[in-house]
Amino acid sequence: MTERSFSFPRWRALVPLAAALALAGCMTQPLAPPPAHAGVAVPASFGTARTADGAPWTVAPPAEAQERGAWWRSFQDPVLDTLVERAGTGNTSIQQAAARLAEARALLRSADANRAVQVGAQGGVARQAGANTAGGATPSTLATAGLNVSYELDLFGRLSQASDAARLDADAQAALLQSTWLMAQADVAQAYLQLRAVQAERVLVDESLAAYQGTLRLTQRRFQAGDVAELDVARVQTEVASTESEALALAREEQTLTHAIAVLVGEVASGFAVPAAGTDAALPVIPPGVPGTVLARRPDVAAAQAAVLAAQARVGVAQAAWFPAITLTGSGGYASPELSDLFKWSARAWSAAALLSLPIFDGGRREAGVQGAQARLDAALAAHRGQVLTAFREVEDQLGALRLLEGQAEAQDRAVASARRATQLSDTRYRNGLVSQLELLDARRSELRNRRQALQVRTAQYQATVRLIRALGGGWGEAAATAG
């Protein structure tokens, strides 16, 4: 009987802990979302028939850490290379994204610290009187010094899931930093290539202006000789003035693009200048059959996925609020009514305790917290799926645009060759008095228009290539080749 009476209380003391562990084992967590595509099937390649040959669609695992390489070097323009490198250190959007990543990592360290043992030191002197003092109503002094130690048992995963959520937040910010890098690089490349196109277009307009001015001088001499009417002079003067206006408009656009590049590289627009390029930039060639899995490198898709997983972890944190919190505390030190005796061995004092806390009624606060966390998870899942669908659309848009622009460029080149030949023939016939001035002016206008359209098509190919690289999350690897 004596043995039973002694062991029975010890067995009963373990009942709360066993019940708590059983509850922890019964705790359910939301299912993890699909690893990378949020329910969107990933095609084996872009821009190809996906059902005619019966080829299976592939699943794209996260690959945002894949090396993207210096994709801008495929344009073979040293000035562009320099500008992109300057943007990497001076772009303010990149600096802001880096600061947000540093903040997220600091919050992760803070969340991890909550899972560690907490140690603190304390000391003080109190003057008190009352029923809790040795002298009753007589005032007495008590000096204390010691250490406090506390540790919360994470039986239900609340602290670990909060730490996981903070880690995923940091991963999302790291992916967003990569996205900001890519965005800044693409913006610099697009602005620079557009600037070069405007400069080349301005050269064409200046050439046309010089030709019109030569025609004007010839027409004025013929008018003075009585060979042509004043109307012919007025027509050529109109073309000269109109072309001068176009040249000034292009100069204004060139200035605006230069200032935009200055901001992108983090420099003041005043006095900023883009060095002259030695040759035209090369147009990268897209290799056939770009795999659909390349899309998994997009940092914004990776950030959306990390946001989903972080929201999932926070659902678990909200659910864990229903379970008790168990905290172990301990303290040790000295306590004495005399400062001179405070650190004597006889003044030592210590304590150890375990605290179990379980909210019973909170007016629905915990349930509202779970519902709010679940709603945020649903929103993150929808945002992730939308990001993936948008990414596919952007890639397909640019692949289709490049395919059509290639055909348009070939047709436009033929139009330029024909227009140039027509201008040469009209100029010869006009100088020999075989055709009117109107025919010559029409031929020159047609040539200028077609040459400018050819240049604009070439610029559109550059821009579509940069947008494709941005849509793919970087270059397409070693399969890429370049052509002048």
TrEMBL record:
Coiled coil: none annotated. It is found in: Cell membrane. One of its GO terms (cellular component) is plasma membrane. Residues 1-38 form the signal peptide. InterPro entries: MdtP/NodT-like (IPR010131), OMP_efflux (IPR003423). Transmembrane segments: none annotated. It holds the Pfam family OEP. Keywords: Lipoprotein, Membrane, Palmitate, Signal, Transmembrane, Transmembrane beta strand. It is a lipid-anchor. Its main location: membrane. Belongs to the outer membrane factor (OMF) (TC 1.B.17) family. This is Efflux transporter outer membrane subunit. It comes from Paenacidovorax monticola.
